[in-house]
C-alpha cells in the first residue's frame, strides 16, 4: 500500500448537511446523539448508529474529548473499520455550552465529531482540527457564523493559512 503524502482537507469532509448551529442538548450523552443524527450515511442504519454512539460514549468515559477553550472533539478510541468507508466530520454549535469535562472546565460550545475508516486518517483529522482551532480568531468566527456554508468557508480559509 502506497502512503499518501497530502494532508487531510477538513473543509472537504464537512458539508452543510453535517453542520448544525443550534444544538439543543443539555448533557454530553444527548449532544453525542444529536451530532450522530447529522450523519446521513447512518440515518437508515440503526445498528451502526448504536455502534458509533457506544464507541463515542466509551471514549468519553475513558477521558473527555473536551480539549478546552469551549471545544470538544468527540471521536471513538479506535478507527471504526467497516462502519464508514470515508471520513466524516460533523460540526455542532451550542449557544451557551455544555459541561464536557474539559481540563479548563469551560463548557463546550464548538463540537467537531469525527469518524474515519482508518486510524491514520483518524489521527490526521484530529491533528488538523487541533491545529486550526488553536487560533482564537477561528473559534470566534465559528461562534458567529450565520449559516453552514459560512462554517465551511471559515475552515477552508483557516486551512489555507496553515498550508506550507
If you had to describe this structure to a student in words, what would you say it looks like?
Helix 2 runs antiparallel to helix 3. The protein is globular, with a radius of gyration of 15 Å. A five-stranded mixed sheet has the order 1-4-5-3-2, with helices on both faces. By secondary structure, it is an alpha/beta fold. The chain has a single domain, classed as Mannitol-specific EII, Chain A (3-Layer(aba) Sandwich), CATH 3.40.930. It has helices at 10-13, 28-36, 46-62, 119-133, 136-144, 148-162; strands at 19-23, 66-68, 71-72, 88-98, 108-115.
- Total count of domains: 1
Determine the CATH superfamily. Answer: Mannitol-specific EII, Chain A
Strand order across the biggest sheet?
1-4-5-3-2
Order of helices and strands: HEHHEEEEHHH
- Tell me what portion of residues adopts beta-strand conformation: 15-25%
Q: What is the average per-residue confidence, as pLDDT, rounded to a whole number? A: 89
List the helices and strands and how they pair.
Elements: H1 10-13, E1 19-23, H2 28-36, H3 46-62, E2 66-68, E3 71-72, E4 88-98, E5 108-115, H4 119-133, H5 136-144, H6 148-162
Parallel strand pairs: 1-4, 3-5
Antiparallel strand pairs: 2-3, 4-5
Helix pairs in contact: 2-3
Brief sketch in words of this structure:
By secondary structure, the protein is an alpha/beta fold. Helix content is about 40%, strand content about 20%.
Keywords:
164 residues; alpha/beta; Mannitol-specific EII, Chain A; five-stranded mixed beta sheet; 6 helices; 42% helix; disordered N terminus
Amino acid at each position: 500500500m502506497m502512503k499518501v503524502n497530502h494532508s487531510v482537507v477538513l473543509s472537504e469532509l464537512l458539508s452543510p448537511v453535517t453542520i448544525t448551529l443550534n444544538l439543543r442538548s443539555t448533557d454530553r450523552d444527548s449532544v453525542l446523539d444529536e451530532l450522530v443524527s447529522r450523519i446521513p450515511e447512518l440515518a437508515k442504519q440503526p445498528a451502526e448508529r448504536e455502534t458509533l454512539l457506544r464507541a463515542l460514549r466509551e471514549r468519553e468515559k475513558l477521558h473527555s474529548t473536551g480539549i478546552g477553550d469551549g471545544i470538544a472533539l468527540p471521536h471513538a478510541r479506535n478507527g471504526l473499520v467497516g462502519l464508514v468507508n470515508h471520513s466524516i466530520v460533523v460540526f455542532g454549535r451550542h449557544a451557551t455550552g455544555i459541561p464536557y469535562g474539559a481540563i479548563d472546565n469551560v463548557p463546550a460550545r464548538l463540537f467537531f465529531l469525527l469518524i474515519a475508516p482508518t486510524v491514520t486518517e483518524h489521527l490526521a483529522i484530529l491533528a488538523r482540527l487541533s491545529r486550526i482551532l488553536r487560533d482564537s480568531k477561528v473559534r470566534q468566527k465559528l461562534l458567529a457564523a450565520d449559516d453552514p456554508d459560512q462554517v465551511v468557508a471559515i475552515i477552508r480559509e483557516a486551512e489555507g493559512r496553515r498550508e506550507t
